[in-house]
Design goal:
By secondary structure, this protein is α+β, with helices and mostly antiparallel strands. Helix content is 53%, strand content 10%.
């Protein structure tokens, strides 16, 4: 286990030792962070960590930890992509097709995070870690009416017809033509909901840094061992 304050390694003090003068209980173990020295109580019944005067941190099973860690990695990618896209949009001299590529990439991530089945994707992970307010705000943004459709449906149509399964025919793109008419007629609502969805999603990574530092540290540790540089012959 790692410290919920600095993500340092926890050293077990044992059941028999006292923590700040409080006798140990049968269902508790005591730990001390090797990094910052913070002492923690591990409740074996609730599987949680708590420091004196601090909020109780619920621990997760290994499968849950892996699921959250993988989500953190993709959220990290989205945050960096979102910030880079903003800098491109603010630069009138940036290549227009690079802006288009980055914009489409972010849409692909948003569709992956928030599929039509709300029990899949990122929303269940957010609820698992207690980010219920953010999950509700994201759902509200996705369900924003844009004429007879919604922001979530527009994102899904664009991803499916343009990015994932393009057929390059007028017939296959008719739904996008229809959606564009709805978007033009509801531009204010569209822009507000789209911006809200992107900002909330990008801000999830700092929230994980604050509330789940152990899993963020594990994500960074694993990611540091992956070589993302282009291989010889990959570029043409």
């Amino acid at each position: 286990m790692r410290c919920g304050k600095c993500a340092g390694q926890l050293r077990e003090l044992g059941e028999s030792e006292e923590m700040r003068g409080v006798p140990a209980k049968p269902d508790e173990n005591y730990y001390e962070c090797e990094g910052c020295g913070t002492k923690w109580t591990h409740n074996l019944v609730r599987n949680s960590l708590q420091r004196e005067g601090g909020k109780e941190l619920v621990l997760f099973t290994q499968d849950e930890q892996d699921r959250i860690r993988l989500a953190i990695g993709d959220i990290h990618v989205f945050m960096d992509g979102y910030q880079h896209t903003k800098s491109l949009d603010d630069d009138e001299n940036s290549p227009p097709y690079l802006r288009l590529f980055m914009g489409r990439s972010l849409l692909a991530y948003l569709h992956g995070f928030y599929p039509a089945d709300r029990d899949q994707g990122l929303l269940p992970v957010l609820r698992l870690v207690g980010f219920n307010k953010e999950a509700a705000a994201i759902t509200q943004a996705l369900d924003t009416p844009i004429g007879p459709t919604s922001l979530g449906r527009i994102i899904a149509d664009f991803r499916n017809k343009v990015i994932a399964h393009p057929q390059f025919t007028k017939q296959s793109l008719q739904v996008l033509v229809d959606n564009q008419a709805h978007m033009d007629a509801n531009e204010t609502e569209l822009r507000a909901a789209d911006r809200r969805l992107r900002v909330i999603t990008a801000n999830l990574y700092p929230m994980f840094q604050k509330y789940q530092p152990e899993l963020v540290a594990l994500h960074l540790e694993i990611d540091a061992g992956i070589d993302y540089s282009p291989r010889a012959g990959d570029s043409r």
